[in-house]
Amino acid sequence: TGAITLDPGYKNTGACESAITFLDGEKGILRYRGYSIEELAEKADFLEVCYLLIFGELPNKSQLQKFNTDILDQSIVNEDMKTVLNGFPESAHPMGVLSSLTSALTAFNPKSVNVESEEDMYRAIVKILAKFPVLAAWTLRQKKSQALYNKDMNIGYVESLLKMMFQEGKTYKLNKKVVNALDKLLILHADHEQNCSTSTVRIVGSSHAGLFASISAGVSALWGPLHGGANQAVIEMLEEIKADGGDTSKFIAKAKDKDDPFRLMGFGHRVYKNFDPRAKIIKKAADEVLEQLGVEDPILEIAKGLEKAALEDEYFIERKLYPNVDFYSGIIYRAMGIPTEMFTVMFAVGRLPGWIAQWREMRLRKEPIGRPRQVYIGENHRKFKEIENR
Ligand code: CMC
């Protein structure tokens, strides 16, 4: 009722109340359920953070064990899903394939579509947590025409994701350093309050479309280069700078030029007007992981040079543009042997618990269907014109 206020891109609109993630963009603070991201990245593992985000508390040992067992019980993906996957050309982008497969899950799990009770909700949640990493790994395998594997039930959530991605036949040598680094990255991506993909999940879910359909929509929203797709775009940009001879100033100038659509990828954020706390941790981790794995990547030096040049430049200072979560993450994924096109898929695996937590919160609070209004700027009433008179 009353006048409609225009708020393009929801810059000023709080669309919901939420008790999941606290974000102070001026101070650069990020907390999940009250716990600082720095402490969680250091001390928790990804599955514990999934539980924390979704159910509100860190799990004790028996809660965590039950959660893990419930997930493992659901981790076999229907064989017919492979037929769906194999219908895609190998050139298909993994994010499009992942979104489609997630949606296709509804066909093979029809009971998970309508959730009436908390038990229904729990069942749908463990199912998607179980099957999503399998689908993510399969998008990579299918591109390389490699055999598709199900989860190894005897190893952890993150280990089994890596194994499904990289195992050759039955063999896969787990590298603890890679596992730890990926665990940390997934935690840092796990939730970020009402960003584009999370708002998408909430709005799709608000029509009581099921969890899997809502997550599939979230994957599509995340794909864009202004959101999660930035991690792929950053590496492509750094490669371009390298191929061009490594002169960052030319690219800084392009980013500042308002007639040039080029933007510094991995820079800027709607909410952070200070360092993105995730970027700080990831930058440090990039140095550590590359050293531990004995990887030398000239792109890391280019990234550091570019960051320094931007942070000293009036244009970026005035607009409070800092490196965001996507700026250094790709360099770590690359050191792990993950192909560039898969980076946003890794982001999606990390963000899954956040999407689930926000969907669950919305349903439990019985929020109304999302239905934004508009400020109409079209024609007033007109008389119909017959086709001969147009
Ligand atoms: N390079 C150059 N200029 C920029 C950049 C950038 N990366 N980001 C913002 N600006 C400028 C923008 O042109 C505008 O300038 P002016 O005031 O002169 O018109 C000013 O800074 C404010 O930007 P905005 O576009 O109004 O800000 P927004 O809140 O609408 O957009 C953003 C936020 C993240 C989409 C944007 O900063 C951007 O496009 N960054 C590059 C893509 C990227 O790294 N995305 C990942 C975001 S973080 C993780 C995630 O969501 O997945």
Automatic annotation (TrEMBL):
It catalyses: oxaloacetate + acetyl-CoA + H2O = citrate + CoA + H(+). Keywords: Transferase, Tricarboxylic acid cycle. It comes from the Bacteria. GO terms for biological process: tricarboxylic acid cycle. Pfam families: Citrate_synt. CDD domains: EcCS_like (cd06114). InterPro entries: Citrate_synth-like_lrg_a-sub (IPR016142), Citrate_synth-like_sm_a-sub (IPR016143), Citrate_synthase (IPR002020), Citrate_synthase_AS (IPR019810), Citrate_synthase_bac-typ (IPR024176), Citrate_synthase_sf (IPR036969), Citrate_synthase_typ-I (IPR010953). GO terms for molecular function: citrate synthase activity. One of its GO terms (cellular component) is cytoplasm. The active site is at H269, D326. NCBIfam families: cit_synth_I, PRK05614.1. Belongs to the citrate synthase family. This is Citrate synthase. It comes from Salinimicrobium marinum. The gene is gltA.
